[in-house]
Design a protein that fits this description.
The chain is mostly helical. The protein has one helix at about 5-50. Keywords: Membrane, Transmembrane, Transmembrane helix. This is DUF2207 domain-containing protein.
Amino acid sequence: MNLALIIIIVVAIVLAIVGGMNAALNWLLWVALIVAVIAIIAFLLRLVRGGRA
C-alpha cells in the first residue's frame, strides 16, 4: 500500500476515536450536572425537614 494512504487511514482512525471520546465526555458532563442538581435538591430537602446528620 502507499505510505500516504496508510498515514491518511491512521489519522482518520485517530480523529474518529477523539471525536467519539469528545461526544462521550460531553454526555457524561450533562449526566454529572443532572446528578449534582439532584444531590443539591436532596440535601436542601433534608436540611429543611430537619433530618439528622
